[in-house]
Automatic annotation (TrEMBL):
Residues 57-236 form the Metallo-beta-lactamase domain. It comes from Leptonema illini DSM 21528. This is Metallo-beta-lactamase domain-containing protein. InterPro entries: Metallo-B-lactamas, RibonucZ/Hydroxyglut_hydro.
Length: 257
């Protein structure tokens, strides 16, 4: 077996062994940063953004009459720039803010593109506490894992969210359900659309690299499940998922206790 073939075989084995996606699933890691984003209108003001680079991650933006909010920033500033360009073609409303549903690079790496446009960046309080240290460490790890990883500049944060943060007169709620997938995981409830954006917590399949306390994850998922929504925009995998995502996640975390 040639070196490349054995490398591929190795990565397939590792991947099949540690997370629930089968080999035939298109969600294999891609060591590239040049794949275009897939942006789709979902419902009401909600648009989904699929970033297939590295390991597939989804994010969201919301367009209202007077303002646009972004929830997560893709992996890299250059993909985030493409996202901002696309949003500019859809509306003349002001870009009011970027809320990062966690400090992790797969959701936060592109944040500098927003800072460059003067868009305020907010994150959960636990993430803000050791933001720089975690950011640098994650960049080191990702540049060792992926040849095409460009180290991402550390964005300046405008503020930190504690338990809950309301936008658009309460029509959009950013909620910290307690530590779950991470100690800073936020979810976003779009009341009018009755949709939830789950970030990394309500994401199936969940990102396999995280060291998650399954009991805490289940507790946070239970809190989120009580919110009033019909569908979920998952932080990974298929973008729009039914409430069945909670059953799958309960099973997953029960098996990983
Ligand atoms: Zn994630």
């Amino acid at each position: 077996m040639g070196r490349l073939a054995s490398l591929i075989a190795f990565s397939l084995t590792v991947f099949a062994g540690c997370h629930p996606v089968s080999r035939r699933d298109p969600l294999v890691p891609a060591d590239r940063a040049d794949l275009p984003l897939r942006i789709k209108h979902v419902s009401g003001g909600i648009y989904s953004v699929e970033d297939g680079n590295f390991w597939k991650t989804n994010s969201v933006f919301w367009i209202g009459e007077n303002g646009v909010y972004f929830f997560d920033a893709t992996y890299q500033p250059r993909s985030a720039e493409a996202l901002l360009w696309k949003a500019m073609t859809l509306t003349h409303a002001e870009f009011r803010g970027l809320i990062l549903t966690s400090r992790h690079q797969h959701h936060a790496g592109g944040a500098q593109a927003f800072v460059d446009e003067g868009i305020p960046v907010l994150i959960q309080r636990n993430a803000a506490a050791r933001f720089e240290e975690d950011w640098i460490q994650a960049n080191q790890w990702l540049s060792q894992s992926f040849l095409h990883w460009d180290r991402t500049p550390l964005p300046k944060l405008r503020g930190a969210i504690d338990k809950e943060f309301e936008l658009e007169k309460g029509n959009i709620k950013v909620i910290f359900p307690g530590e779950g997938w991470s100690d800073d995981n936020l979810v976003v409830l779009f009341k009018e659309e009755r949709m939830l954006y789950g970030g990394s917590l309500v994401a199936y399949p969940p990102l396999f690299t995280a060291k998650v306390d399954a009991i805490k994850a289940l507790r946070a998922l239970n809190a989120v499940e009580k919110l009033p929504f019909d569908k979920v925009i998952s932080g990974h995998g298929t973008v729009v998922q039914s409430r069945d995502i909670f059953r799958k996640l309960h099973e997953y975390y029960r098996d990983h206790k």
